[in-house]
Amino acid sequence: MDGLPALEDQAQLDRLLVLEEQATTVLAGDTLLHGDLYPFNLLLTPDRVVAVDWPHAWIGAPFCDALTLMSSASLSGIDPQTLADRHPLTRDLDPRSVDVFLAVHAGFLFRVATNAGPATGPRLIAMMTRLGTASLSWLRRRW
Question: pTM for the complete prediction?
Fold first, then answer.
């Protein structure tokens, strides 16, 4: 599919696969997660923030939604690592946990984008591809 980032070599793909294999244990938890926590799913009111559009909710590690939102920040030119280094849910997190999440997150988004049917709007596919690329780019910088 056009627009997907290329991996430089088989070793990078193998590394991503190893990270994804660790997802079941690393991303386990008992926190209700939004699963699609991006700025376009947040409404700001005068006194609170409301998360909308919950069809991808799941139960997992408490840091997952924070990392999802942080990874999307790079689309606005913000370094997500700077955010992760300061946020209370991620600043003391085992670096492997961040890497596992980013690999799984990018893989999920690319899989959905490449398997989208003809009725899926091209703008939605492009957004999923950009978000997946953002997570993969952050992961590459961490390597």
Answer: 0.88
Give the residue among 11, 14, 16 at the shortest CA–CA distance from 135: 16
**Token pair for 5:** 């980032």
Q: What is the mean pLDDT of residues 95-100?
A: 97
Q: What is the DSSP string of 32-64?
A: EE-S---GGGEEE-SS-EEE---TT-EEE-TTH
Between CA 27 and CA 70, with CA 48 as vertex, the angle to 5 degrees is 35
Neighbours of 62 (CB within 10 A): 15
Q: Report pLDDT digits (tens) over 76-87.
A: 999 999 999 999
Q: Tell me the C-alpha distance between 48 and 80, whole Å.
A: 23
Are the C-beta atoms of 62 and 89 separated by less than 8 Å? yes
